[in-house]
Specification:
The protein is of the alpha/beta class. The chain has one domain: D-Maltodextrin-Binding Protein, domain 2. The protein contains 9 helices and 13 strands. Strands 1, 8, 9, 10, 11, 12 and 13 form a 7-stranded mixed sheet that branches. Strand 9, helix 5 and strand 10 form a beta-alpha-beta unit. The protein starts with 8 loop residues before the first strand and ends in a 15-residue tail after the last helix.
Length: about 300
């Protein structure tokens, strides 16, 4: 993303395990590029105490299986990433595991290439997609999206900005970005056009399938800058002990959304209700605080906002 994954604020920072941003891609499939992971699930198979029992809103396939199969790009720290090479963890994981408890089911997190998750949901490979997908008009044509967080885009450069990058005039610079993100599909094309119209050299865009690859490119000097969802960039800066720094401010803030099949509107509405209850009982903010994402909290959980 995304979020930011990703019409979110552009950020520049080193993300050791970042990935994400919502993809507009309609590529087929969704094979994993990460090690297979053991299911990460809610702690209980019965609806959580307090609030509503939402199990009646589950699609028959999920109700029968007793679990929700979720496609996730586990390279987008701190929102979703692999711990120990096999277990998917992060803000999105903790929050949705709590949502699943409201339905009395567990969650199976399946790592996948970011740009293939939406088509995987459309084709039935995944029951849902959760990977810092920024809600935008194109995605809402393909699937239902349930808002749960707000993020923006942020740029990052190496400490001291040795290449003198200006995000508003990156013509001639080499810029890293994750494939399928709104940063790649929406933000950079606008900047490229400005360079062309001004008669300046084009931005040399280096796309990567995984956000952590884009981060590594910046840290090694292969690129001059990168842009990604703001939570990812800020965490990258922290995790790399100052090797990277933020360039400019967060912009284009927009909500992240859970990806739900177009036909499952009632299920999507029930998910929004579960989020509202988690906000009321304090669970929602506790999860965000754990991952230092408090600033992205929202209160207007909705389907296709």
């Amino acid at each position: 993303m995304s979020v930011l994954r990703r019409a979110l604020v552009l950020s520049g920072a080193l993300v050791l395990a970042a990935s994400g941003c919502g993809s507009n891609s309609l590529e087929n499939g969704g094979s994993s590029t990460s090690p297979s992971t053991a299911p990460s699930s809610a702690p209980s198979s019965a609806p959580s105490s307090g609030g509503s029992d939402l199990s009646g809103s589950l699609p028959p396939k999920i109700k029968s299986a007793g679990k929700i199969v979720v496609g996730v790009d586990a390279t987008y720290r701190p929102n979703e990433f692999l711990q120990g090479g096999k277990t998917v963890v992060g803000m999105d994981v903790d929050l949705f595991n709590a949502v699943a408890q409201k339905f009395g089911v567990t969650v199976e997190w399946q790592p996948a290439t970011f740009s293939t998750i939406i088509t995987g949901v459309q084709g039935g490979k995944y029951d849902m997609g959760i990977s810092s997908f920024t809600i935008n008009a194109e995605r809402k044509k393909q699937v239902n999206m349930v808002s749960y967080f707000s993020a923006g885009t942020l740029w990052a450069v190496k400490q001291g900005n040795p290449k003198g990058v200006n995000a508003d005039d990156a013509c001639g610079k080499t810029v890293g970005v994750q494939t399928g993100t709104t940063q790649q599909q929406d933000d950079l094309p606008i900047r490229q056009k400005k360079c062309k119209d001004a008669g300046k050299p084009a931005i040399n865009v280096l796309p990567r399938d995984k956000q952590d690859q884009a981060t590594a490119d910046l840290a090694s000097g292969k690129t001059d800058a990168m842009l990604a969802d703001s939570p990812v960039v800020l965490d990258a800066i922290k995790q790399t002990n100052g090797q990277l720094q933020q360039l400019g401010q967060i912009y284009n803030a927009a909500p992240y959304g859970y990806v739900v099949p177009k036909a499952e509107t009632a299920f999507a509405q029930a998910i929004a209700k579960a989020l509202q209850e988690l906000n009321t009982d304090g669970t929602y903010k506790t999860v965000l605080q754990k991952w230092n994402n408090n600033s992205g909290a929202i209160t207007d959980f909705a389907v296709n906002p």
